[in-house]
Every structure is written in C-alpha cells, then in structure tokens.
Amino acid sequence: MSLRLNEARSIFSNFVGMAENQKSVILNSEQLERKLDRLAYEVYEQNFQEQEIYICGIMGRGFMVAVQIADRLRRMSHFDVSVSEVILNKEHPENHEILLNPDLSVKGKCVILCDDVLYTGKTLAYAAIPFMTHHVRKLQCLVLIHRNHLTFPIQPRFIGMKLATTLQEHISVNLAAGIVELK
Question: Which residue, 7, 81, 89, 149, shows the most beta carbons closer than 10 Å to its own?
C-alpha cells in the first residue's frame, strides 16, 4: 500500500510541477480581434451622440489596447478620436506624478480610460485622478480582461472578458502576437 501511495505522490508532484510552468491560451489571435472589435462597438453604442472622444491608455499594454480601440472607432464612427498615454508609476502611483502624453485638454470631454488587465483596480483608480481634476464630462473605463479581485472601487463600463483566477496566477497580454495567456 505504501508503494502505491509513494507512486501517487510522485505522479502528483510531477503534475503540479509541470502545471506551474505551463501556460494556457485564453484568447488566440482571432478571438482577441473579435473581443477588441466588440469592445469598440460597445464604446460606439454607448457614446454615439458624441462629437469627440478621447481614448487614454495606461502606459504599456493599456496604451496598446487604447490604440487598437481608437483605430476601430475611427473606421466605424463619425466622431473625432484622440489617443493619449497615461504615464504613472504602477508600483507606487501615490508617490509620483501622473501624466498624459500627449497632454490633451480633456475638460468637458468624454474619456475612455483603457488597460489590458484589471486586477485590484489600484492602477485604474490612480490613472483616473488627472481626469477627475480636469473636470471631464464623462469618464468610462475599458479593460480587456477583468480578473475579479478588486480592492479599489473601480467598475469598468466595457469588459472584454471576465476571468476567475487565483491570486497566484498571472494573465499575459501580447497584442503584437495576438495572444492572451494564463500562467
């Protein structure tokens, strides 16, 4: 009996070790394109009355999502679309200035704040600060993946995919390769 127990432990530990190093594809290139298309249509449907819209992405992959959404909106809508990158220290945003590049005048405008993955909501909460101080007319958040582990009062208006994950798992978004993975 102990031989079988040892075999089972060995098989289980090999399986766990193997699983820790594996990646699971969450969205392939075609699925990712469809999610981005759907998000852009949702933004358009919720803001069709606008004459002008500002798509602002959090530096890195959030900005890449913003560019993708803006490109799609330009093709499908009548309104002017401007894109800006929100630059902030993601580790300690409370201790650093938050900037827009290029610095746009967003007072009284409709702004869509974009990020790739929403985890705790901390980054989006701090990224929203400049828009609150510049008195935008409307601020909506868009995320490609929502992980459901919020500790900050952020509720995105546009969500590509809700995904239940453990705290130890990591979502990797690679827009250039057209893939979203769970590690």
Answer: 81
